[in-house]
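Extended Data, panel c. Modelled sequence:
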Amino acid sequence: MNRYFLHLAYNGKAYHGWQIQPDETSVQETLERCISLKLRQTVGVTGCGRTDTGVSARSFYAHFESEPIEDTQDFVYQLNMFLPDDIVVFDCWQVDGHLHARFDATSRTYRYYVTRRKNPFHTDDAYYVYGDLDVEKMNEAAKMLFDYEDFTSFSKLHTQVKTNNCRIMEARWYHDGDLLVFEVKADRFLRNMVRAMVGTLLEVGRGKMDLDGFRAVIEHKDRCSAGTSAPAHALFLEEVTYPGL
């Protein structure tokens, strides 16, 4: 059996996240079904992470094992004909049998998009936030994330992970045309982590939480102390990195 890597993207609006869920439609289940039909063998796919319900990915990697594929580019073309319009595979290539899509990824970058005015063209890809926001204060709070590793306060409760430690590499707010964007890069992310961060940082921007309060949220290691999670539709996995890729 040979191991192959896939580079893909998906609109998560219609899916209950990446990971297979009982009685729910997921990206992983859809991809596995289409690959298995195309190759006429049962194929399991391992992703680089587990995006939440409604979250999209502009760049996502996965691996699977199968009998040799003679023409990977033709395979990509035909696989895209099997897949629904909200999932696309960009590339497929054979890799060393030990390369793992999830465990060998060195970083993931997410962006959360906020629109400051009602815009019918950003209904599905940005969160409309009304009122004044102090972006400078939000960036001051975002810099505090570099001081910590335990992000229990921004994690969904009762998950199965062994540790809530993550190493934040980048965290900032910036303007991109009419949109306000929160970009965060880390070695790993917890379930609901980015959306909880955004929701809490927006509390800082609205003046409902000061900087000391934001630091206290992190140090309490209690999800109940953080703000409400921002909606999923405005969150995108933008980049995943691997050594040598």
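The mean pLDDT is 94. This feature is highlighted in the accompanying rendering.
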